[in-house]
Amino acid sequence: xxxxxxxxxxxxxxxxxxxxxxxxxxxxxxxxxxxxxxxxxxxxxxxxxxxxxxxxxxxxxxxxxxxxxxxxxxxxxxxxxxxxxxxxxxxxxxxxxxxxxxxxxxxxxxxxxxxxxxxxxxxxx
Length: 125
Hints:
Layout: H1 11-36, H2 77-87, E1 91-95, E2 108-113, E3 119-124
């Protein structure tokens, strides 16, 4: 006669445990293969494909007041370049007061100089 504590494990319980282990082992592989099967949108190689986005340049500005540090100083090429950089202008020119170079350019610094070559004012235009 067999005691209850020594009874062998039912056959079905061993098969369930094996199936459970196999399922746990196969689940990551199954999920990985499903993820690899998704298709992305196909983009044709033709002229109809839009160009990739471009980075926008920083908005350029010119502020003549930023060149006021040089008021009264004799205008040299190095000082004119420093004034252009500080004003944020694309280019810089010297002119007599009241004279404006043509054509107008809002990103050009115009440094007004007197007859002795000293800076009298600055504006953009």
